[in-house]
Structure formats: structure tokens, C-alpha cells
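Appendix B. One record, verbatim.
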Amino acid sequence: MTKWKFNVIGAALVLSGTFTTWAAAHNPSNVGSLDDGQINAEVREAITQHRDLGAPNQIYVQTRDHVVFLSGWVYNSLSADNAIEIAGKVPGVTRVVSTIAVDK
């Protein structure tokens, strides 16, 4: 009888953990609830709203697993730093990786 109790309690604990994890993963208020496509679009939009990052600069954005990858080139290091900061402030972004080159 004791073994049966432990099996039932163990199953209940596993199921409660599973449901809690599922609820957290499907909660739209979570920062990670945005998908990569939405994050990518929002980062691009945020960058285009800054005049110093416009043409002739060329900044490309790719997002994978909430990590934003910036590439391309800009005319000064301040613009590169600004692009990284802007991308990092977009909701859902967990990290920004930049290979932006400065054209001298």
C-alpha cells in the first residue's frame, strides 16, 4: 500500500510541474512570447526610426531563438553602438550579437 501512495504522489508532482511549465510557456505576458519574426520586424522598425542609422549605412537584422544578429556596415562606431543598444531594448530580445563593420 505504501508503494502505491508514493507512485500516486510522484505522478501528481510530475503532472503539476508539467502543467505549471506549460502555463508559463503559453502566458502572453512572458517576454519570450514574441516569435523571432516579430522580434526581427520590431528591431528593423526601431533601427529605421533613427536617422543616424539610415542610408548610407547598411544594417541587416536576423533573429534566432530571441537572439538578434546585426551585420553590415556603418560610417562610425557611435552608429554601431547605437544600433546594438536599440536592438537590445526591443521586447523579447535576450541578446544582441553584432558583426557591424565601421567603414573608414
